[in-house]
């Protein structure tokens, strides 16, 4: 188990550390490591993680998108909003950046507003790197074993999707407003507190098609009010009944019942059903916007959403 996971475990509960560590060690992801690409080009999704998470926390979402023919670039932010991250120093050694806790003298808004600015720039730079990769101008210095050259000329960058969860959802909205190379947005339970003083200016600038997929128990009046600043013409809203904030991450699948209760990830809707609905809402929306046809993905998503229609509320919704 790597140091990122250890830090996350510790941040949840010292009492549960041993139990959760044992669970996480056996977690599996249904994917083929370093698989070769099929023929053709692939549309691209840039994904931004939530507060105290990291790039690996959303494999259930990201692998589902990848299995439907997308290249997914999951960013790990270096603004110290991740549970832990690392950089390689000049000697090739890892230098860890740990989650920044709030200082007594610092207001949370000031910290989160500073962090989201970094996050937006990192998301934009990720697209810069992908563009460079696509023309063969990127050297692989990580020695990961994956052949980056097979991606040269294979990325369809004409309709790049920006997506993210929570803090990453707010990052998504802010990035769409700033960089129009991103053509489609998928914000999972967007947390807009970090841009609460700027949303009246940022919201109307989001001219791209956007869907905000919310869980039932996360949203607040202030957050819903902030989402009202998004353009009616392009913004779409949907809520999944019986869900909590972490239903859009991997957390419910790697914690046992006690861990889910302590971690606030216990939902009345089955986590697998919740994830299926979440993923297919995103997939259907993205595929409908693409110029390149993905009718099979749309049809499959439509069937799943129809089977679970009683768990879905369309439009901006609140029980508050």
TrEMBL record:
Gene Ontology MF term list: 1-alkyl-2-acetylglycerophosphocholine esterase activity
Coiled-coil ranges per UniProt: none
The keyword Lipid metabolism appears for this protein: yes
Gene3D superfamilies documented for this protein: alpha/beta hydrolase (3.40.50.1820)
Residues at the catalytic site: 166, 189, 245
Organism: Meganyctiphanes norvegica (Northern krill)
Top-level EC class as recorded in UniProt: hydrolase
Protein name: 1-alkyl-2-acetylglycerophosphocholine esterase
EC number: 3.1.1.47
Keyword terms: Hydrolase, Lipid degradation, Lipid metabolism
InterPro entries referenced in this protein's UniProt entry, alphabetically: AB_hydrolase_fold, PAF_acetylhydro_eukaryote
PANTHER family according to UniProt: PLATELET-ACTIVATING FACTOR ACETYLHYDROLASE
Keyword Cell inner membrane set for record: no
GO terms classed as biological process: lipid catabolic process
Record-linked Pfam families: PAF-AH_p_II
